[in-house]
Amino acid sequence: LDRKSPVVKVAYETGPKSFDDISIEHELNGAPRDHEGNPIRRKHIQSKWHTTAGVFGYHDLIDPKFINAERHSLLQRAKLARTGNGADSDGLRLELVTNWRLRPDDPLMKLVRKESDALDLSSLFDGTTERSQMGQVRKLWREHLGVDDDALRPIVRALAIAETTESLASLRERLDDRFA
User: Fold this and answer.
1) What three-state secondary structure class fits 54?
2) Is 150 a catalytic residue?
3) Is 46 annotated as catalytic?
4) What gap in Å lies between CA 34 and CA 123, rounded to an integer?
5) Can you give the pLDDT at residue 168?
6) Any catalytic annotation for residue 90?
7) Catalytic-role residue among 34, 46, 60, 79
8) Of 48, 63, 106, 139, which is the active-site residue?
9) Average pLDDT by consecutive 10-residue portion of the chain (180 residues)?
């Protein structure tokens, strides 16, 4: 790789389980910044492409079937990826890229920040009770993961959800051009 490039390594089919399609490592200097201005040292991308259109919401992130798994959900995989990276987990981004769309009436739609695809922690941890919309999201995710709010926050902070309407054929064509 070019020494001036902040990219140190790109790998395919490697990385934490369920976030292992593409892994990108960056040098600290010149690394892209996350939604809070912190460097993203490692980005692990999981691509979920479907042949037909579909929608998903916050409940789907606790359902293993959503990621074609039998035992562990996307959130459980994010928790394992985050805790498995120890001190280096602060520079970690776990990104789901999918052609399915967020349900317009689902609270997850309000959480995905469109400038970064990261989840909006200030909205999720807004101080409301468990009877509120965001309180119900926090409660479901906490109970599913067996954690409290303090442990949930860094897991959610590492997550990003990128929707696309681009077809797989179109994406491949664009990638072919970039790789050339």
Assistant:
1) coil
2) no
3) yes
4) 17
5) 74
6) no
7) 46
8) 48
9) 67 82 86 86 88 92 93 94 70 92 96 93 94 97 97 95 83 73
